[in-house]
Structures are given as structure tokens and as C-alpha cells.
């Protein structure tokens, strides 16, 4: 058994779509980043890479590489799934939390779990997604950005 933890955060900006967990959410701001800046996918990806002892997202998907400009983070997760599988490992469970004041995530969590489970070739029951606020504290509390944290267990 191997465990990995991942974290990601991006600034909210105008003129970008908001993708979280592979789902495009209706919101007036999006996350700024080289890819689609999906913090949930990035946190899960980093956790998977960590559990597989394969470094981090920046090692495999550098932000100065034009191949990853505006790429869907689901495509990044698919590549990470292959890295994990090539190490002979499988997903036992993923637990994750989105940290943001807005928008509301609850109506989209089921769809996020479905997209992530399809991408990672695992059952949706092996993926937990929660959302929380920081009650106005910090950059997420001031609605300047969104963060996510994930823990994965591989076997």
C-alpha cells in the first residue's frame, strides 16, 4: 500500500472558463493557469504521482511546455493513470476537498466523480469529493482563488 497527498491552488480571473473535476461550472470567473487550471484534477494527479514515487505534476507536465497549453486536466490525469499503472499500482481510494467560497459545488459532485472515475478507470465509489469554505479567511475566503487537496491510497 502507498499513500500520496496533493495540493493545488489557482487565482480566479475574468475571461476563463471554470473547470473543477473535469466539469465546466457556470461561473463568471475561471482559474488562471497554463492548462485549464483544474485544481481538483491537479491535486489528485499530484497525490497519485506522489504515491507512485514519480515526482510531481511540474516534472511531467511543465508549465512552459506548449504541449500542455490549455489542455484539459482530465487528459493529464489519464497520462498519470498510465504512469501509476506502469509501476504496477492500482487506485484503492481517493479522498479530496475543494476549498472555495463560491460557486456552490454540491450540485456537480456526482458528475465530477463520474468524469474522474471514467478517466482513472476506477469505480465512482472509490472517489470522495467534498467542498468547504474558509469563512472569509485567506485568498480562498476573499474569493481570489480556489484550492484543492487530495489523498490517494494505491495498492
Fold blueprint:
Elements: E1 2-13, E2 18-20, E3 23-25, E4 30-31, H1 39-51, H2 57-60, H3 73-86, E5 91-99, H4 109-120, E6 127-132, H5 138-141, E7 145-154
Helix pairs in contact: 1-3, 3-4
Description of the structure:
The chain is α+β, with helices and mostly antiparallel strands and 155 residues long. Helix content is 30%, strand content 29%. The chain has five helices and seven strands; from the N terminus they run E-E-E-E-H-H-H-E-H-E-H-E. The chain has a five-stranded mixed β-sheet with strand order 4-1-7-5-6. Strands 2-3 form a two-stranded antiparallel ribbon. Helix 4 links the parallel strand 5 and strand 6. Helix 1 runs parallel beside helix 3 and helix 3 crosses helix 4. The radius of gyration is 14 Å and the shape is globular. The mean pLDDT is 97.
